[in-house]
Amino acid sequence: MNKSELGQAAEKVMAFLDDNHYGKSVISDNRTCIARLTEYCKENGCGYSPGIAESWYLSVYKTLGRQQKAAFRITLIRIRDCAETGHVRAEHTFKVTGVLSGTLNGELEEYISCLRGKLKEPAVMGYRSSCREFLLFIQEKGAASIRDVSYDMAVSFHDANDANVYYHKTHNNGRIAGLLTYFHSKGMLPYGFTLLFHYLSRGKGAFWNDVGPQVAGRMAGLERDGNSAPLEKLLEYRDEIVRIHKEYGYSKSVCMTFNKGIELLYLFLDRYHFSYRPAAAMLWFCSVKGHMGKESASIRRALLLAGQLHDGTGICLETFFREKPSAFRNLPEWCREAAYSYEALKIKEGWKRSTLDMIRSCISRFCNYLDSIGIRSYGRIQAPHVRKFNAEDRHRTMAGKNAYNARIRHYLVYLGEKGYLGNPMLFASLPCKSAPKESIVVVLTETEMERLQQALHDGDNGISLRKKAMLLLGLKMGMRGSDIVRLRYDGINWDTASIRFTQKKTDIEVNLPMPAEVGNALFRYITEERKQKPGPDIFLGEKAPFCPVSRAVCREALDSALPDRNVPGSGFHVMRKTYATGLLRNGVGADTVAEALGQRGTASVHRYLSLDEDRMRMCPLSLAENRIGGWDE
After folding, report:
1. What class does CATH assign to 327-429?
2. pLDDT per residue as tens digits for the range 534-558
3. Which of the chain's ends, N or C, has fewer CB atoms near its CB within 10 Å?
4. What CATH architecture applies to the domain 446-614?
């Protein structure tokens, strides 16, 4: 193709744009592209060909803005069309020619008139072009009014324009979404149409409809059951979930993901005329979660929180939703009734969550073992079965094994009392294999103390003020980690420089003097890091929802200050041991140390005396006088 033929093709492209009333910005971009391509061919002494045009486009691609990249690309496609066929091919017009019916044309003009005065005229013309294209499409599908549009029509329109460049398609979707939102406000369309094109613009199409016929059939079956709610209620759940998470300081992206998950579910349910049920929501999620990528976990949580609101239990931000059922929930059928009734009894007795989890784990091990050797009834359990389980059940320590055996023993007692066992004395088949022991007291070495002091007073080491305050409470006041994380505002008396609290382990109330160093660290943490977050607890999590922390955070603080320390069996409690040992080494009496530690007697304090090497050397025993090691000869 020679240069004059390039000019002829360019004239046809520009005439096409003018005839179809394209906006000034589109015409300007097309004219710029043609002028620059013509100049390129002139400088290189070559005629036009699709290959030449592609080479030029690639040479200038990095210098173009996002809009120009898309505009230049479609201009080159249209030039190729005119060079090959003499006109722009239909799939590259982004227009549907035809005449709108009176009703649809009136609805279009109503919407366009409401835009005038809000937008500039070129933008209004762009809206007219995009919306007219959509209305002509649904007219061809049988719609006589905007009221007749369906989800299938809208998705088909989106898919039919799949060849459009992304930039143009996104603009089109936004304009059509505005049209549908306007007529929803007039009561002519369901709420779902205000969301549809927003999510179609994400590039994955209507992936929320990717539900197989078997799953769809199960959902249809749920429609015959109760526990349903209208879709408007689902939107109320969405608003409440987002409101609570914003109130507790969750990031904007988390709230947007929660919002997205519930709105996609709404689109699916509205498309197939289903009401809302938590069970149907999870069926839908399991079918489409493969399309959701990294957002799938957050969307699943949003749906489960909506289920909590639907069931009337309210939202608890600390709730952890397991994706897989626990072993206790998957017990063999024959043992579930007794196991679950025992669990309910322990819950009623008020045991803590950690203890209940331990009980569930013990029962699961025991029952699954019995099932594996062919026992299908509690009445068939005999003493050899229990002893064999005990022999094969592996643990890292005898103390751990004894802890499991003790709980299984209690369960066997319960089964015997309820008449499940043929032999109610089976509990005696599990022995106690853990004897009391005296462990060696481990304290921080001098080197570790020096490094810890440096970490506490260095302001540029990345250790948070919260961690420093926790470390000082343990090191300077001997507080346990379980008491530090439960510290509340009303327990600190700034006037008397003291801290009053009830020890979690012993249930003894203590009132300890607060060193100035500790008070300063607490004050800095409260005013600079914690600030005005709600709640009476002093130590809160660093991320939303800013709940009280567990004692594991104290261990994390020690690991941050002494990252190279690796002493098995020695955690944050080493701070308390170091504090008590330091008092003894400084000549403080055992009674005073016990009082400082909040202990009723001095028995546990005596364990630290062995670490006072200087005073131990002052009272040695004679081996000869005590006839030890043959020294009496």
Report:
1. mainly alpha
2. 788 999 888 877 888 888 999 999 9
3. C
4. Orthogonal Bundle (1.10)
